[in-house]
Amino acid sequence: MCLAVPMKVVSVKGNTAVAEFGGLKKEVNVELVAGVKKGDYLIIHAGCAIEKLDRDYAEETLSLLGGLKK
Amino acid sequence: MKYLSEYRNSAAMKRLAGAIRREAEGLGRSVNIMEVCGTHTMAIGRYGIRKMLPGSIKLLSGPGCPVCVTPGGYLDRAIEFSRLPGTVIATFGDMVRVPGSYSSLEKEHAAGNNIRVVYSPLESLDLAERFPDKKIIFLGVGFETTSPAAAISLKEAGKRGIKNFYIFSGHKRILPAMELLLKSEEVKIDAFICPGHVSAVIGSRPYEFIPEKHNVSCVVSGFEPLDILQSILMVIRIMAKGEKPRVENQYRRVVREKGNRRALALLSEVFEEADTEWRGIGTIEKSGLVLKKTYGDYDALKEFPVKVKKTGEDKRCICGDILRGIKNPADCILFGRECNPENPAGPCMVSSEGTCAAFYRYGNGR
Amino acid sequence: MHSLIRDIFLRHFKGEILNKLDDSAILAKISEKYTVSFTTDSYTVNPLFFPGGDIGKLAVCGTVNDISVTGAEPLFLSCSVIVEEGFETAALEKVAESMSKTAKQAGVEVVTGDFKVVEKGKMDRLFINTAALGVSEKGVETGINLIKPGDMVIINGYMGDHELAVLLARGDFSIKSDIKSDCAPLNGLIQNILRKSPGGIRFMRDPTRGGVATTLNEIAGNASFGICLYEKEIPVREESAALCEMLGFDPLYLANEGKVIIISSKEAAGGILSEMKKHRYGKNSRIIGEVVGQPSGRVILNTAAGSRRIVDMLSGSQLPRIC
Question: Which of B60, B336, C19, C87 has the lowest tally of Cβ within 10 angstroms?
């Protein structure tokens, strides 16, 4: 019940933003996420942003998983 | 696709699977891990995750498919709404083929009633604006990931002065169902993998009563195969080290401990908790969301009183047992024979992320 | 739908040729030197015009391709148009123009046709039926019965673009994208590879409704072999993959209108692939799988993660989901 994709904000206007994902562009509602700006990655579900992606944590997770040796 | 594809790296998946195997060997006993999110069910099927795990780890699928747990009565009522003059039913694609007691939205559409598939409730609001002489009824189905979008639509309706937009709320909360499963003890659950996007809204904190009261760990998990495998590894490590069960957040790039404050505030402004029926399970206390009286003008239940017969489901259909993780699709007499994606007997098969649909599509895994 | 065809039409029309349900009927009796192929198809699409094509282009390509995949060269088309009263003349002109342009590009001639108008409200704007006649020299034979374990499965490019382009063109999801339908006549491409490797091609089919997964299941369905796909090799355009992620679609099940699945012998596969890549409609050709002995009757996928899963037939069309 959680199908959502991370979309990159291209422009913001009030409660709406244009966001991009894999070459697709869509207008999305951003009123649930504070301080949205161009370049942010948002988790978009049913046309609405439910959270902002934290890039530091994203990188941390990836490097942790890459670091698993043996 | 940035922040998606990287979490599908096959070399990393193999390494994680190896690490899980080693930890599980050290643990030396079998473990039941339950996920309660249809998107997890699908991802596990799509990436063949079960086959990567040792035989001692059993992945159970719980009632995480909001379509599967929507009672037949809800569908019947939606169908009756669609038969009223001047109505348009706006729905997520997931609901279209779900059988009610005597029809489905797909069949109603074929019969000429107005059913429209939308990707967002906001689209159905646009429909209401474009067709002021029609009554647009949005079928609000989903867990906490989705109910904020419905709430946003209601507020927008108010702002834009749209009066022909209604919501038929079937929204549910996953936590009461998780608690019921633990209390009922029908199936042994050693740990939960918690739905990452529901948790983006509610936070990781609400799960804390689960390790506290029931000694079961909860790992909030993302949806990519690396996320799921890492979450399973986190569960096994807690158990292998003999540590006290606790809540862990694997999906830190999205989930905050306290959740999304704005979303939670909006939800409590628009909805209130109510006891609600779950298909195959029965009524669960405070597990549903209904529109508050202040939003009564948008409530389809108030605006469109329709008669719906109370009927039961096919007694041979064991979706209820499957949703509670007690049985497997393979245990069902109807599975693969009378019940298949083309002719679903129950919601677990027709919902694209229902357990039976996933099993049918992706094979049995282990 | 399959059951309606079987239970009603096959039952009444009874015939050895029809019962095969090939893409085109192969009529061996007509000539000593040539085998004649004959096919028909009807087209309804919403919307009528979409990025990369329109109903007219579809109607020509679909039928041309049905002839081509049996190894025959399409020569002549019939075109039957049924239109709702009041349908805009300008749009009709555009459709005719498109059909003419596509037929010319494919090197086929529309030689007969029909046109009817139906009372307003009694149908959905415009339907087209095309039938085609094609020929092949006797001796060129393809068939499912020729397929053996070890054979390779090849596709001529990206999957899913057509269905996604049409879906987006309906405007329901307000998503902006550059995805275009892949609608194209493939007779040129297919004739090239037949000339290059006449004995190397076991079977061909165009993966239209239900996508590659459904087509491969139709092929392997009652057979003594199975088909194994390699997920890493399956070509999907980045935008199309992204749209599938958003809406919850599986590209293996999306309809194509400019794609052909070729099952070739292992020895011929390399040569066929390089020949395909030379052609305009084969630039992104790939070997996507192979024919296996076990499990027979099944299509399986080797996932990028190294696990295996079953790829079943599609039931109904995919609908965008939130779960």
Answer: C19
Is residue B308, in this structure, part of any structural domain at all? no
Indicate whether B36 and B156 sit together in one domain. Answer: no
Calculate how close chain C gets to A11, using CA atoms only, in Å. 14
Cβ distance B4 to A48 less than 8 Å, yes or no, reads no
Structure token digits, residue C97: 């123009």
Question: Is B98 found in the same domain as B28?
Answer: no
Nearest by CB to A54, from B1, B227, B253: name it.
B253
Write down all domains in chain C, each with its CATH number in brackets. Answer: 2-137 (3.30.1330.10), 144-310 (3.90.650.10)
Question: B10 in contact with C at a CB cutoff of 8 Å?
Answer: yes
pTM of the model: 0.91
Find the domain containing A58 and state its range.
Answer: 5-66
Mean pLDDT on B250-263: 97
Q: Are residues B210 and B113 in the same domain?
A: no
CATH number at A29 reads 2.30.30.140
- Does any CB of chain C come closer than 8 Å to the CB of residue A34? no
Question: Is 80 exceeded by the pLDDT of residue C242?
Answer: yes
The CA distance from C175 to the nearest CA of chain A, in Å, is 5
First to last CA, chain A: 35
Minimal C-alpha gap between C188 and chain A (Å): 31
Q: Which residues of C touch A21 (CB under 8 A)?
A: 242, 245-246
Contacts of B94 in chain C (CB under 8 A): 319, 321-323
Count of Cβ atoms closer than 10 Å to residue C137 Cβ: 12
Q: Are residues B108 and B51 in the same domain?
A: no
Residue A62 pLDDT > 70 = yes
Describe the crossing of helices C55-68 and C89-106 by its angle, rounded to 10 degrees.
Answer: 30
| Distance, CA of C14 to CA of B168 (rounded, Å) | 50
What does the alpha-carbon distance between residue B140 and residue B295 come to, in Å, rounded to a whole number? 14
Number of structural domains (chain A) is 1
- Of B227, B249, B271, the one marking the end of a domain is B249
| Average pLDDT of the residues in B352-366 | 69
Q: How many independent structural domains does chain B possess? A: 3
The neighbours of chain B, by the rule of 3 or more Cβ pairs under 8 Å, are A, C
Q: Which residues of C touch A49 (CB under 8 A)?
A: none
Does residue B156 form part of some domain? yes
CA B48 to chain C, closest CA, distance in angstroms equals 6
The two three-digit tokens of residue B331, written as one number: 């245990």
The predicted model gives C9-38 an average pLDDT of: 82
Same domain, B242 and B268: no
Token pair, residue B330, equals 């393979």
Lowest mean pLDDT among A56-65, B160-169, B264-273, B333-342: B333-342
- Residue C243: closest C-alpha in chain A: A24
Report the C-alpha gap between A56 and B253 in whole angstroms.
Answer: 7
Phi-psi group of B40: left, alpha or beta (phi > 0 → left; psi -120 to 50 → alpha; rest → beta): alpha
What is the predicted pLDDT for the residue at A69?
46
**What sections of chain B are H helices per DSSP?**
10-27, 38-46, 49-52, 72-83, 105-110, 121-130, 147-159, 174-184, 196-202, 209-214, 225-240, 261-270, 300-303, 319-323, 347-350, 355-362
Together in a domain, B292 and B326: no
Q: Is the ipTM of this complex over 0.90?
A: yes
Check whether residue B79 and residue B157 sit in a common domain. yes
A contacts of B178 (beta carbons < 8 Å): none
- 8 Å CB contact of B3 and A53: yes
Residue B365 pLDDT exceeds 60: no
Q: Is B310 domain-assigned? A: no
Specify if B312 maps to a domain. Answer: no
From the CB of residue C193, how many other CB atoms can be counted at a distance below 10 Å?
28
Is residue C189 within 8 Å of residue C60, measured between CB atoms?
Answer: no
Residue B40 and residue B161 in one domain: no
Q: Which residues of A touch C244 (CB under 8 A)?
A: none
